[in-house]
Design goal:
Helix content: 25-40%
Shape: elongated
Structural class: alpha+beta
Distance between the termini: 25 Å
Number of strands: 3
Largest sheet: 3 strands, mixed
Number of helices: 2
Radius of gyration: 13 Å
Strand content: 25-35%
Order of helices and strands: HEHEE
Number of domains: 1
């Protein structure tokens, strides 16, 4: 888990403009941690079909 690894080792992380995550629904607590650690401007949760290899739908977290 990248969030735990960054916290455990106290890595310095630069600001990230956009992060797109997929695979399953993201808990609000994880979204909050990601926003805090990466100082991210936009965080998206993406969904798609494995067999078509593309994003079918994505939404801005918080909407």
């Amino acid at each position: 888990d990248i969030v735990n690894e960054i916290r455990k080792n106290k890595y310095s992380v630069p600001r990230v403009e956009r992060i797109m995550l997929g695979g399953s629904m993201m808990p609000i607590s994880l979204a909050s941690e990601i926003r805090e650690i990466f100082n991210v401007e936009s965080l998206y949760n993406c969904y798609g079909l494995t067999e078509v290899s593309g994003i079918v739908m994505f939404s801005h977290v918080g909407q």
